Backbone:
């Protein structure tokens, strides 16, 4: 049975300020820790004490301190069994909203996708498949590098691997395509080739890792 997300109210050390996002696996509030006077984001699972909520908590814990990953501060369950995660608060917007509002040049998009690809490379190297890469799951801080969220659908691979999962590589190519569509820009030939190699992940011609995608995006930027 689905558990409704509570309205903003204090619980434990946290004082909820306002709702800042809704996703497929939970709703997110901006909050303040009264214990250490720190602003954070708290995600309440919309399906209660579920394997998905536990999986996200464990994934973020396994990726603790990894660059480009939202930091997790605390996690637990409310009295009714609903899971919550207290994590780093990013003052900014998601990638999709940023593109729609600012319509930056294609080089900006390529640079940010390259940064995301490096982060995905770290995730995959630790034996985790993100499984839900999208423009909405990349946060762009007002200052700093992009942060990857949306680990509610992540999976631990059968064994640690040094290359990205094929689905994550294909998703990186889709980030480029959907970003161009949102901004009404045509992808240059070099970037078109990158998206095709992403789509071909798992074949002899396609990319074998997210880091290879980042390398080619860096070559595009240097040119």
Residues:
């Amino acid at each position: 049975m689905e558990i409704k997300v509570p309205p903003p109210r204090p619980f434990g050390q946290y004082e909820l300020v306002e709702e800042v996002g809704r996703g497929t696996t939970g709703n997110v509030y901006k909050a303040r820790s009264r214990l250490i006077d720190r602003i954070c984001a708290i995600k309440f699972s919309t399906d209660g004490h579920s394997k998905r909520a536990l999986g996200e908590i464990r994934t973020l814990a396994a990726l603790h301190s990894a660059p480009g990953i939202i930091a997790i501060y605390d996690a637990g369950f409310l009295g009714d069994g609903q899971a919550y995660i207290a994590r780093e608060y990013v003052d900014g917007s998601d990638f999709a909203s940023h593109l729609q509002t600012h319509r930056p040049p294609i080089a900006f998009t390529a640079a940010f996708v390259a940064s995301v690809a490096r982060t995905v490379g770290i995730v995959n190297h630790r034996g985790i498949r993100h499984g839900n890469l999208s423009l909405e799951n990349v946060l762009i801080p007002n200052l700093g590098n992009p942060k990857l969220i949306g680990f509610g659908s992540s999976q631990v691979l059968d064994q640690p691997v040094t290359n990205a999962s094929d689905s994550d590589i294909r998703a990186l190519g889709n980030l480029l395509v959907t970003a161009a569509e949102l901004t009404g820009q045509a992808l240059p030939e070099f970037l078109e080739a990158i998206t095709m190699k992403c789509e071909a992940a798992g074949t002899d011609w396609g990319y074998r890792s997210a880091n290879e995608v980042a390398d080619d995006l860096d070559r595009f930027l240097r040119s």
Remarks:
- The mean pLDDT is 87.
